[in-house]
From TrEMBL:
<dbReference type="GO" id="GO:0019120">
    <property type="term" value="F:hydrolase activity, acting on acid halide bonds, in C-halide compounds"/>
</dbReference>
<dbReference type="InterPro" id="IPR023198">
    <property type="entry name" value="PGP-like_dom2"/>
</dbReference>
<dbReference type="InterPro" id="IPR006328">
    <property type="entry name" value="2-HAD"/>
</dbReference>
<dbReference type="InterPro" id="IPR036412">
    <property type="entry name" value="HAD-like_sf"/>
</dbReference>
<dbReference type="InterPro" id="IPR051540">
    <property type="entry name" value="S-2-haloacid_dehalogenase"/>
</dbReference>
<protein>
    <submittedName>
        <fullName>HAD-like domain-containing protein</fullName>
    </submittedName>
</protein>
<dbReference type="GO" id="GO:0016791">
    <property type="term" value="F:phosphatase activity"/>
</dbReference>
<dbReference type="InterPro" id="IPR006439">
    <property type="entry name" value="HAD-SF_hydro_IA"/>
</dbReference>
<comment type="similarity">
    <text>Belongs to the HAD-like hydrolase superfamily. S-2-haloalkanoic acid dehalogenase family.</text>
</comment>
<dbReference type="InterPro" id="IPR023214">
    <property type="entry name" value="HAD_sf"/>
</dbReference>
<dbReference type="Pfam" id="PF00702">
    <property type="entry name" value="Hydrolase"/>
</dbReference>
<keyword id="KW-0378">Hydrolase</keyword>
Amino acid sequence: MEGVEVLIFDIFGSTVDWYTTVCAELKNLGETKGPSGSENWHAFAQAEEWRSAYMRQTQAFAKAESDPLTTPNVDEIHRGALETMLASEQWSHIGQCWDKDARDNLNMVWHRLHGWPDATEGLYALKKDYIIAALSNGNARLLVDMAKNTDLPWDAVFAGDVIGSYKPNPKMYKTTAKLLGAPPEKCAMVATHLWDLEGAANSGLKTVYVHRDAKEPTEESTDVRTKAEGGEVDLVVKSFTELATVLKNSHST
């Protein structure tokens, strides 16, 4: 990681624990608005029509070089997918209980996601020696709200609707590095998603894999190793606080 000046962080699953937050809000909404009885909110959170729809649509737009003025942002993707889901045979009994206000509020849960326990402490430690920036497919307002809600002290925020594409399109990584005044080789992408790190590496960035129990519907648990161990990333850590310690120790040796 020698020469790195900028640390660029993925958000969903890497910095914030979307799964636990969303499941808790679903459970609360079910208790207050219905339906009565038990529901598998974990399945709802990961369902093909919602979280997977976000993954599927953003990656499709990333490949298509879509017009940013006509491409839906992540709030719109989540809202449309939620409507489709609640109209489906599997989930329509829930849709009958939730009015527009309930659905609007639920869709905003993505603005209220909680950080992983180490996220805030680790970011503040890293901020002392590095530029720290968020790079997400999420839209700008979502990322700003989330940073305020869970105390994420970014120096800069780069969103899909700001750059005009979605990861893993190279434009996302290269534009972020350029706007921060650093060549790609002086930037490192920090993420729990290998597809994201692969996109960053292909754009010339160094890569840091952080182990998270992110429960992404499109990913399986993988034994990730560093390049020195014959793997695919530059560094592997278990938390942002560990990353801060590792980088600080590397400077002192």
